[in-house]
Design brief:
This protein is mostly helical. The chain has one domain: Ammonium transporter fold (Orthogonal Bundle). The protein is about 70% helix and about 0% strand. Helix 8 runs antiparallel to helix 9 and helix 8 crosses helix 10.
Length: about 400
């Protein structure tokens, strides 16, 4: 009944995407000071548990249930009701619906965890847990349905291969809203305490991203291999471009800059990975570092305390990636896709532009309002004394290093 090759491939892809959340924990953990390592890592790891609970109870159904008004799915899959061992995904993939549930769950786990880098060192764990819950329910789940679950944006013809809108733009602009609401850290001179940890996190993210992008084809075919290669090519071109930019403007090649560039390239190629040629993937990688480097520099000039550059890397990376998809997509590379602007698809480009802009604005506004409301229930930001002492001690009563 099932295609065993495609099913095995999706099991591997799901495992790779799962690995990305611990990778993010190490990436963020190395970027913060020693006194906040466990707190930022916990914010990633707790999503693996809590988001899973939300996903199997209500999330999958809200994302992939029968369409309600083009915005959200119905309750047909609550508690995964009606999904048996013999339930198939369809779409010609030949894989069990169960593995699709698991694969999409890994996306849901990492997306809100991305936001945490923006408000590192200064948000209470209780407030974060409430934010994590409402953000998934009112931002992530509706976006998944609208684009991947047959909702209004899907019906309109918007494409997003692996999450430029759904994952990176939504999380990145939500992160920017949290920066404005929470405010600057008291210790704004805080520096990364372990670049080797950042390197380990980058390696895990890069490795897992093959499952993130190539796995989004949901089967093993030529488009899968194209997405796989495009992922690595864009990340590599972006990493070297950032290294060159650091050498030009900061007078020294920077290890941290190269790692940041790689992640920027990965985020930017994500929406286009299965729709563009490898030549365009090279251009996307270069453009990713240029755009994200400028965004991070602008953020620094404005004094926005996006602690770990979530907006500059993921928000701008996802936004630019969608625009480049609108430019470079080709039906030659994927007959189920569309032709971008350079191939005559001006309407498609405009749809991508409108969709990513609307989502960015919605994610920003909702996140700011959500934090404002949460602050009425429980104080979002820790006290100055707790912040200076470090959240590992103040919030968790633990130390990363003794």
């Amino acid at each position: 009944m099932f295609n065993t090759g495609n099913t095995a491939f999706m099991l591997v892809a799901t495992s790779l995407v799962m690995l990305m959340t611990p990778g993010l924990a190490f990436f963020y953990g190395g970027l913060v000071s020693r006194k906040n390592v466990l707190t930022i890592m916990l914010q990633s790891f707790v999503s693996m548990g809590w988001t899973t609970i939300l996903w199997v109870t209500v999330g999958f159904s809200l994302c992939f249930g029968k369409d309600l008004g083009g915005i959200i799915g119905n309750g047909q899959y609550f508690l995964l009701h009606g999904i048996s061992l013999n339930s198939a995904l369809g779409h010609g993939t030949g894989i069990p619906l169960i593995i699709f549930v698991a694969y999409q769950m890994m996306f849901a786990i990492i997306t809100p965890a991305l936001i945490t880098g923006a408000f590192a060192d200064r948000v209470r764990f209780k407030a974060y847990m409430i934010f994590l819950t409402v953000w998934l329910l009112f931002v992530y789940f509706p976006l998944v349905h609208m684009i991947w679950g047959g909702g209004i944006l899907h019906q309109w013809g918007v494409l997003d291969f692996a999450g430029g809108i759904v994952v990176h733009a939504s999380a990145g602009f939500a992160a920017l809203a949290s920066v404005f609401f929470v405010g600057r850290r008291k210790d704004v001179k805080s520096r990364p305490h372990s670049i080797p940890l950042v390197a380990l996190g980058t390696a895990l993210l890069w490795f897992g991203w093959y499952g993130f992008n190539a796995g989004s084809e949901l089967q093993a075919n030529a488009i899968t291999t194209s997405a796989f290669l495009n992922t690595d090519v864009a990340a590599s071109f972006a990493a070297i471009t950032w290294l060159v930019l650091a050498f030009i403007f900061e007078k020294k090649p920077k290890m941290l800059g190269m790692l940041t560039g790689a992640v920027a390239g990965l985020a930017t190629i994500t929406p286009a990975a299965g729709y563009v040629s490898v030549g365009w993937a090279m251009i996307i990688g270069i453009a990713a570092s240029l755009a994200c480097y400028i965004a991070v520099s602008y953020k620094n000039k404005r004094g926005w305390d996006d602690a770990l550059d979530v907006w500059g890397v993921h928000g701008i990376g996802g936004y630019v990636g969608i625009l480049l998809l609108g430019l470079f997509a080709s039906k030659v590379m994927n007959p189920h896709g569309a032709n971008g602007l350079i191939y005559g698809g001006h309407v498609f480009f405009l749809k991508e532009l409108v969709a990513v802009t609307m989502v960015a604005v919605y994610a920003f506004v909702f996140s700011y309002v959500a934090l404002w409301l949460i602050n009425k229930i429980t104080t979002v930001r820790v006290s100055e004394q707790e912040e200076l002492a470090g959240l590992d001690e103040a919030e968790l009563g633990e130390d990363a290093y003794r």
